[in-house]
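pipeline stage [seq->struct] | target=ABC transporter ATP-binding protein | organism=Pseudomonas syringae pv. actinidiae ICMP 19096 | residues=77
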Amino acid sequence: AAAAIHRALIALRDAGAAILVISEDLDELFQISDRLAALSGGQLSDLIPTEQTSTVQIGGWMAGQFDHSQTQAHTPG
């Protein structure tokens, strides 16, 4: 079922649709995402192309470990 959903999301993306996926499954996110960002403690990281990051970096961001020299994490609002 998950593979069918992923294929459908990718087909929609390829057709020009913007899709927001919220997940804690980094493997899944790296498979289906063009760009990634993380939200932790009310702070939103920069949006970064998937090929320019790693599961270690995104996992750290998810845990609130923002390296402000590499990202401009900010509090919305």
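stage status: PASS
auto-comment: The mean pLDDT is 86. The CA atoms of residues 35 and 50 lie 5 Å apart.
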